[in-house]
Amino acid sequence: MLIRRRPSWELPESAATPEAVYLSRRHLLGAGAGLAAALGLGLPAVAAPTPGNPDLDPTKDLYPAKRNDAFTLDRPVTPEDISGNYNNFYEFGSDRRNYQVADIAERMPRRPWTVKIDGLVEKEREVGIDDIIRAMPLEERLYRHRCVEAWSMAVPWTGFPVREFIAFAKPLSGAKYIRMETFVNPAVAPAQNRFIYPWPYVDGVTMAEGMNDLAFFVTGVYGKPAPNQYGAPLRLALPWKYGFKSVKSIVRISFVADRPVGLWEQVQGREYGFWANVNPEVPHPRWSQASERDIGTGERRPTLIYNGYGEQVASLYAGMDKTEKLFM
Ligand SMILES: Nc1nc2c(c(=O)[nH]1)N[C@H]1C(S)=C(S)[C@@H](COP(=O)(O)O)O[C@H]1N2
Ligand SMILES: [Mo]
User: Fold this and answer.
1) What's the CATH number where 186 sits?
2) CA 214, CA 209: separation in Å to the nearest integer?
3) Nearest residue CA, atom 16 of ligand 1?
């Protein structure tokens, strides 16, 4: 008999605001343009829909998905106009602190989009994203997100457990890791024209991590299909790890025998490793990880081991700290 204990991260959900009421600042700006046109200021009355407009998403009917109440927060949900305008998505530029990343990302077409499933699987195949999303049990989860740069947010993701995708992909027993890869399309992602990073963006997890209940594939946010800057149409959310592990806009998922080398590990292996579990006591070589700035409230708060999800994931790493750098 399995008795469900109340895990430590199920803290009282002090101020998780119903996200449906959030108004996107960028949409307000759009409304402003319409008003300007009505006043005869010569701007287009209706902005042409961009290829990345989530309102045109063919899976829109699946939202909002039912919230899974097992996942609660100890802090307010970050307003969409803040989390949606403070994005690390280096393919679209490295200045996350203005509207640039979101605006440039919105030019990326969301369809057609396929995901290649390959490596150690029963049958390699390339599947349309809608066929994946419609085969999966979508749910909403409130998750904390901790970037290695010492900022954090709390977001209502919609998606499905990685475990469900593993069952869909049918890996062979030799598969030990799941490697995930982002698109390469310099025509829409300007930074991919510059050879500063070894594109595509890659990262991965062990099979055991992927099977953990917390490992989540995201398709939506704030009760609707995710706008591109969040990593549409498919991204990872691994809330106990630093954010760079959560690969965005995935086009290829490979089941492999060898540990994949992530983009950040490849370019800066002394600072970023494979495990990247959140730990306030292990500083980044260039800054402390003891606390973080909540981009929603602006408050500084103490960082929690495994970002507060230790009860779910600590056992994955039992005894490994002797041989592995688990926290970088
Ligand atoms: N393809 C890709 N995925 C990525 C990144 C990126 O630059 N490219 N940045 C990572 C980092 S460092 C973080 S913190 C999160 C940011 O997700 P957010 O923009 O939704 O906050 O995405 C991660 N996934
Ligand atoms: Mo990050």
Assistant:
1) 3.90.420.10
2) 9
3) 88
